[in-house]
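writing this on my phone so excuse typos. first protein, seq and then structure
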Amino acid sequence: MPVHLRVPGAAFLLPLRSRAVRLTRAASRLRRAGRGALTGALAAVALAASASIAHAQDTSAPPSAKAAAGESEPSLASLWSTRPGWDAPQPWRTDKWYVQFAYYTWHFHPDPRHEQSYAVDTTYRLDEYWLGGRWLVGLALFQNSFGQFSQYLYGALQWHPWQEQPPFYVKVSAGLLHGYRGEFRDKIPFNHYEIAPAIVPSVGYCWTRYCTEFVLLGGNGALFTVGMTVP
């Protein structure tokens, strides 16, 4: 027969052990919560201290420093608009730069291979005169009538011949033309090395800073341009 032994108080010890385990777990949770609360309290103290220091620095700064810090950097447009000469009464006469865009080409002898020519021309006006005209230097970048990228580097003289219409002007430029290549090399004279001399006359009229020109391209065609002068 099996023998059963009974230990006095064993049934009482089991509940005590279970309570001890629960108390240990609760204590662990309390320690973790305590650490989290302490960390949060320290973070709050640090944040309050930094805010106090920033406020003290702000109140101790002189008013001029605050105003300077609050001012933003001026924009490029505002700086450009305050340049001397921007408010000149006759800007077409006193401005140094002129930028124009050719928007239409009139071909006197149309060819099926012709394309519209578009050009950007930048001119600088010197304070030098010869034969009653003002010296200019410039560079034009354009697509020629055969779709080839071309360049024209030039000097020019500009006259205002009629006193009753001073915004009206006549201009004659002379320089070197490059860009007519391959089968179109002979479309302009003296272009044996793909660089040829050129003379280009034009007439124009200005309204304040805005101008338009009629540019004669020898006996082959003409350009119509619009542009703007800049101090």
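second protein below, same order as before
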Amino acid sequence: MSGGDLLTRHQAALARCRRCAGMQGRPVLGGAVASKVLLVGQAPGSKELIVRRPFAWTAGKTLFGWFEAIGLAEDALRTRVYMAAVCRCFPGKNPAGGDRVPSPREIANCAPWLEAELRLLRPELVIPVGRLAITRFVRVERLDTVIGKSFRMRLEDVDTDLIPLPHPSGASTWHKAEPGRTLLAQALELIRAHPAWQALVAPAPAATDVRCTRDDLSAAPRTKRAPRR
């Protein structure tokens, strides 16, 4: 079975997951893209639950704006980057406002899906977005200690580079003021320069034009006919 078939089978099983009673709705999945770049979000919001795709609302517009600035617009990114998350289901609303943060048990329940994706994809670049996603891989005391840096890691027996990004939520001002604004720019530059990202944004080689002009034909050597006997 090919890697693409295994990924499709993995997503079919993930779509049927109902491990967490406190989560709302069905898992929200990106496309089954066999990519060497893995984007890891936190958890879908209420709008993603309706639209049925990750980063489909305001935060997504900001995130895709960042990526477009380094070479990949939204439509291209969704077909060239595998989009995962710490939790794939909507946690529901927090009574105090905003979305509820998934519980440690819910995060643990969803972890095997991400671990399986790491083994299937063997990514060369992992981009966790937001504190919850970043802490899935590295310890975070403050965002300014991890944003703007690249971490060489071994995940599920795969050597990869981890470049964290802040969450693009409109409620967060971290990436809009210093030092967040400068560190975000540094992180995006690290992503832009990474070979795995460069492979995604590189234009396809132009097809060789085999047509020739009349001048080309006239310049070509002519085959001499054998004399008739």
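The two ends are 64 Å apart (CA to CA). thats all i got for now
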